[in-house]
Each structure stands twice: as structure tokens, then as C-alpha cells.
């Protein structure tokens, strides 16, 4: 059976992984003033887009996920021909409309695919499953990586589906944003009041950086540390502790809103890499997608993994 994997562009996974696993992207379109770019996870295009006035006004960006019709057309024009079963893994529905759009489109896709496949000489059934990752950025990538691993191992779609849906409940994303004022302005535009002006102002004045988590669709702060580097180091060291305690998948997924060489110089990075190597956990690294960058700011550090319930310490 031919199994396909689809993710939205806010899912942070390496570009070579996307290419090797033939993963299809549902792009999010980003508009800043008159500048418009469909986020296809192209690092060069993203960096070129976020320059000058565009970068300065990024917090004011409008983001538009693939519509129901666009998802429907992508499947009918390509995916129902290339695959027999497709897993569509989406950013948590609490932060993006892409899950709801894909879910709604799935009903019409399953009604309309038969004549399309028949015209190509294929009368076998087609199926798809839309998965709410309940996470963001690198956290979404954990599920995409696991889907590819299980596909390569020859697992059946029902087993993959059950595992991914269960794994979503145990996936944890952690992030250190570099600029509280930017984050506050961005989430205010989205109608989120979780970072007040006062906390942003105090945090900036004192150089206090929050460590944020996303789990089961809910985001919240779990720590505050003076200095970006110190906060990232604390997050990396905590991730190392979870690796030593035992992860549910052999995956540590990192994404960064900047050059990879900058990320690799951050304190605690090498220790985390060494810990993962000692415990046979594969580390994935990616440049954060454009839709993620405009939401949390350039220079944000994010990691995702799946583990048993825990407290950040």
C-alpha cells in the first residue's frame, strides 16, 4: 500500500527529510503590507522575504492557511493518484485553522475520489486521516518523523493512525522566544492576551526570557530565566533529562529562527547532542518556517519530543 504524509508549513522538520520522505506541504500564505509569500519551507525565500520594512512589520503579518477548497483540489489533482492512504498531520487546531479546513475537505475528498482514480485505471479504495498534532512547530514535526519511520517499517495504516493519535497526547513542545515585545504585539493581533504589556516591558527591561510549553493544544509559561542564552541552556538541559528518563520515540526535534550554525553555538546544545547519542535518540534540526517566524519572532529556539507526563524543572 502506498502511504503518503502531508504536513502544513508550520511543521518544523529538516528540508532534506521532506525531500527524502516525499512529504507534501500545505502552505500557509503570509502577507506583510503588500509583500506576500506562500510558505513552502524554503529557507532562502524566507530570509529574503524577512528583510527591511517587511522584517520590521512582521508582527503585523496576516497568515492564511490552505482553504477547504485548496486542500480538496490538492488531493484530487495529485494525492489520490499517488497514494492509497494519506496521513495529514496538522498544527494544533487551537492555534491554526488548517486542521479544521483539512478535516472538512476530507469529507468531500472521500466522496469525489473514485472517478479520478478510475480515470487513471485504479479502482481500489482511497483513505485519509487528518491528525491534530495538538502541538506547534518542532512538536508537530515529532509526529511527521514518527509517521515516516512507521511507514518505512511496513506498519499498516490502522496501526500508524492509532499510534499517531495516541502520540499526539504525549508530545511536548518547548520554546524560548527572543523578544517579548514582538511576541506580545503578535499574539495581541491574534486576540491572545497571555502576554501583557507590563510583563513584556518588565521582561525586556530585566532581560527575562520565558520558557513556554505546548502540550495537548494548550500553551503556557513553565519558567523564567535571565538572558536568552541561559534560558535556552536550561531548556536544553531539561530536554537531556527527559532523554535520560526515556522518550516514547527515538526523536529529538529542534527548530531555530535563524542560521543553523548560530543554533549550534548556543550553550547546552552539545550536551544535548551527546546525551541523545548516548541513548540512541536521533536529533533533527531545521530552520523555522516563515509562518512560525512571524508568529514568535526571528531567533526563537524550539524543541519537541514525546515523553511520559512530567514537570519542567
UniProtKB/TrEMBL annotation:
Q: Which SUPFAM superfamilies match?
A: DAK1/DegV-like
Q: What is this protein called?
A: DegV family protein
Arranged from A to Z, the UniProt key words for this protein are:
Lipid-binding
Q: Reply yes or no: does the keyword Transmembrane apply.
A: no
Q: Does the keyword Ribonucleoprotein apply?
A: no
Q: Which GO terms describe its molecular function?
A: lipid binding
Database matches in NCBIfam families: DegV (TIGR00762)
UniProt lineage? Bacteria, Pseudomonadati, Pseudomonadota, Gammaproteobacteria, Lysobacterales
